């Protein structure tokens, strides 16, 4: 469902994206081409800052926002999801936040007040709050990274995880095409 926010801003969604009918896209949201937004995802840009301003939530091309993901922002801060990035089932991305290109965020992970640089793999049940990740870092399952976390404890992304991330993007790109075709047949 696409809907306006209380400020009167409506989502801008590429005709080449697929939004599942159960998803809610609200307000100042920009979704580029070949993006897949899965069932029950919520992408909501509706809060304003103290001056009444709001930055957009941007989902860049070829990315996928999977089932039950929530993307929101505190006080109108910007949220950007880069190109070819996967946000897996039931994760929460809360602004202010930037997730770079070719990133994989695993199931049930939470990212808040952070910049996740290109090529990172964040496994399931992780929390990243208040600390930026350099490019191509591999965060093992169930790690909590906060402002005092020593990043030397985590390693670079192994090649097999990079190829896994690429396969998830490819699978979801195929889903965009398939679901768009099905919706055209039903209309």
Q: What can you see in these coordinates?
A:
The chain has 187 residues and is of the alpha/beta class. The protein has a single domain (2-186), classed as 3 Solenoid (UDP N-Acetylglucosamine Acyltransferase, domain 1), CATH 2.160.10.10. It contains 1 helix and 20 strands. The strands form 2 sheets. Strands 1, 2, 4, 5, 7, 8, 10, 11, 13, 15, 17 and 19 form a 12-stranded parallel beta sheet that branches. It has an 8-stranded mixed beta sheet with strand order 3-6-9-12-14-16-18-20. It is globular. The mean pLDDT is 93.
- Range of strand content: 25-35%
> Which range best describes the helical content: under 10%, 10-25%, 25-40%, 40-55%, 55-70% or over 70%?
10-25%
Q: What would you call the structural class?
A: alpha/beta
Low-confidence stretches: none
How would you sum up the major sheet? Answer: 12 strands, parallel
Q: CATH fold name, please?
A: UDP N-Acetylglucosamine Acyltransferase, domain 1
Looking at this structure, what is the CATH superfamily? Hexapeptide repeat proteins
The pLDDT mean sits at 93
Helical stretch count?
1
Order of helices and strands: EEEEEEEEEEEEEEEEEEEEH
| Tally of structural domains | 1
Sequence-ordered SSE layout with sheet pairings:
Blueprint: E1 2-3, E2 12-13, E3 18-19, E4 24-27, E5 29-31, E6 36-37, E7 42-45, E8 57-59, E9 64-65, E10 70-73, E11 79-81, E12 86-87, E13 92-99, E14 104-105, E15 110-116, E16 121-122, E17 127-129, E18 137-139, E19 144-145, E20 155-156, H1 159-186
Parallel strand pairs: 1-4, 2-5, 3-6, 4-7, 5-8, 6-9, 7-10, 8-11, 9-12, 10-13, 11-13, 12-14, 13-15, 14-16, 15-17, 16-18, 17-19
Antiparallel strand pairs: 18-20
């Amino acid at each position: 469902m696409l809907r306006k926010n209380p400020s009167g801003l409506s989502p801008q969604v590429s005709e080449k994206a697929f939004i599942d009918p159960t998803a809610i896209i609200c307000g100042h949201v920009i979704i580029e081409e070949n993006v897949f937004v899965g069932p029950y995802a919520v992408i909501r840009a509706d809060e304003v800052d103290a001056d009444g301003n709001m930055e957009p939530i941007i989902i860049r091309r070829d990315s996928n926002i999977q089932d039950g993901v929530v993307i929101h922002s505190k006080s109108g801060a910007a949220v950007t999801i880069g190109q070819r990035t996967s946000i897996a089932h039931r994760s929460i991305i809360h602004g202010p936040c930037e997730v770079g290109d070719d990133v994989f965020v695993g199931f049930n992970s939470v990212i808040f007040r952070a910049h996740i640089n290109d090529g990172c793999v964040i496994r399931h049940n992780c929390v990243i709050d208040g600390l930026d990740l350099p490019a191509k870092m591999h965060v093992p399952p169930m790690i909590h990274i906060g402002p005092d976390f020593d990043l030397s404890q985590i390693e670079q992304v192994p090649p097999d995880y990079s190829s896994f991330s690429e396969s998830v993007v490819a699978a979801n790109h195929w889903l965009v095409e398939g679901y768009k075709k099905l919706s055209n047949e039903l209309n």
